[in-house]
Write a structure and sequence with these properties.
31% helix; 500 residues; globular; Immunoglobulin-like; alpha/beta; TIM Barrel; four-stranded parallel beta sheet
Length: 500
């Protein structure tokens, strides 16, 4: 709810609520209680029959903070809170991949009812094929996290979950327009050795369903029908607009013309008439670390993301601002040649940009706030500001000049106004205080900071700088070790920089 208040403050009007994953299912569905017992609890296990395995430091005892979920009442309360702040909540049910928690929960339900002699009821929500011998490995190294799309229980499950969310949204007074149904990272090899999947494939029209991977199309047609019947439209990750094919015997992914992982895929989809929300890893994955340092929280598999990455992202021409790779190494412009540009028609199909804050590696509310701020301010600026001239001009030198001017205005506004306000609103947010830049030149130590408005303090006696240490106002004359830190209006300090 604190996050929703900050979102409202900066007119971020959609909350994409990713509550289900391989590791857990976090929202109560009364008709399917195993989702929030088996699918939530974490502890040591070799078979995941009674609960999910320990992960991300949850420990061996199932009585731990990670073995928790939002009740139906909690979710409705969140919806009402969001609605009062003009924020639409879009829930996500991860399917058919990233679904291990749901699969294991429904396996447990199946075993319970089979023991009670209720075979038909047991199979009603089954998400797996017990005889499946397919061999695959997900991006997170799971071998059993993909729903069997030939299992009728999959569609009963999805319909039941969708109906539950429709009811909760209705009770909260926030009509549901769409549900995000995932679709990402389904690995090669799924369903290949599932008897029921192969039987289904054999029964489908050969002109449309030639190979096992074509069951992907079958699945999304079924899911689309479930949502359409309920007056909802389908939302999903980019893979739902793609399908597997073969070129010279090698597996490739191509845009699926029936639904429509390349750099220009979002533009190709938008140009083709699909509504697209841009959320690239390189600029808008807020769970990525600010910089490579042992004390920085967050990942860096996709690079490093600071407030500038969101600020200089150009929604209508992001290939233009693609200048470095994930490690900051300049990209050869030739690599981007031949990529599709966004057409004037396609611009109308870019319906928004979105910041992602994946939380599996976030261990506290303070860490969440640290990763979100001040990055969120860069997102808000780029989402709502008019497309700047520095982004549209073809004059490279003028673009650089205009960008530097705009960046100067932005960081001064953030550092001197917005962060000052955020230090008081809701008791203050744990935003990241930038690490100082410092170097020794001609025997003097020079320092600067990304965000103006903060005080730079230093010491020359080897001690850690505090709010009472000397204030940096000009280059420091010192031949020994100099330590520097930045401090905000609440007296919180940055990481210390040491110059020898």
């Amino acid at each position: 709810m604190r996050v929703l208040n900050w979102m409202a403050m900066y007119k971020l009007n959609k909350l994409h609520f990713h509550f289900s994953e391989d590791d857990a299912w976090r929202v109560e569905i009364p008709a399917l209680p195993e989702l929030t017992t088996v699918g939530v609890q974490r502890g040591h296990t070799l078979d995941s029959k009674e609960h999910m395995p320990s992960a991300y430091g949850s420990g061996g005892n199932t009585n731990n903070p990670q073995s928790s979920f939002y009740t139906r009442a909690d979710y409705i309360e969140i919806l009402r809170f969001a609605k009062n702040r003009h924020i639409e909540v879009i829930p996500e049910i991860e399917t058919p991949g990233h679904a291990r928690a749901a699969i294991k929960a429904m396996d447990a339900r199946y075993r319970r009812l089979m023991q009670e002699g209720k075979e038909a009821e047991a199979k009603k929500y089954l998400l797996s094929d017990p005889d499946d011998k397919s061999i695959y490995l997900s991006a997170q190294n799971f071998r059993d996290n993909v729903m069997c799309v030939a299992q009728p229980g999959v569609y009963t499950f999805i319909a039941t979950a969708v109906d539950a969310f429709i009811d909760m949204h209705k009770e909260a007074g926030m009509p549901l327009k769409t549900i995000h149904v995932g679709g990402d990272e389904v690995p090669q090899g799924v369903w290949e050795k599932s008897p029921i999947a192969q039987n289904l494939l054999a029964a489908l029209p050969k002109e449309k369903f030639k190979q096992t991977s074509d069951l992907w199309i079958y699945y999304w047609e079924k899911v689309h029908a479930i949502l359409k019947e309920r007056g909802l439209y389908v939302s999903g990750w980019e893979e739902i607009g793609m399908r597997e094919s073969k070129v010279n015997g090698n597996r490739v992914m191509m845009v699926n013309p029936e639904f429509a992982n390349n750099e220009d895929l979002p533009y190709r989809l938008a140009n083709g008439g699909y509504k697209v929300v841009l959320c690239p890893v390189s600029n808008l994955y807020f769970d990525l670390a600010y910089q490579k340092h042992f004390d920085e929280v967050g990942y860096y598999w996709g690079g490093f993301v600071d407030i500038d990455k969101a600020f200089y992202f150009i929604p209508y021409d992001y290939l233009k601002n693609t200048a470095v790779d994930r490690f900051g190494v300049p990209i050869d412009p030739k690599l981007l040649q031949g990529k599709d540009k966004l057409t004037d028609y396609g611009k109308g199909n870019i319906v928004g940009i979105q910041g992602e804050l994946w939380s599996e590696n976030i261990r506290s509310a303070a860490d969440l706030e640290y990763l979100a701020f001040p990055k969120m301010l860069g997102l808000a600026e780029r989402a709502w500001a008019v497309d700047p001239e520095w982004a549209t001009t073809t004059d490279e030198n003028r673009s650089k000049t205009l960008y530097n001017d705009a960046w100067s205005v932005f960081v001064n506004t953030v550092g001197k106004q917005e962060l000052f306000k955020l230090n008081y609103y809701q008791g203050g947010v744990n935003f990241r205080i930038p690490t100082l830049g410092a170097k020794r030149v001609d025997g003097k130590v020079l320092a600067n900071i990304q965000l103006p408005g903060m005080q730079i303090r230093y010491t020359t006696d080897g001690t850690e700088p505090t709010v009472n240490s000397p204030l940096y106002t000009s280059p420091i004359v010192s031949t020994g070790i100099v330590k520097l830190r930045a401090f905000d209006s609440r007296g919180r300090g940055s990481r210390t920089v040491e110059i020898e």
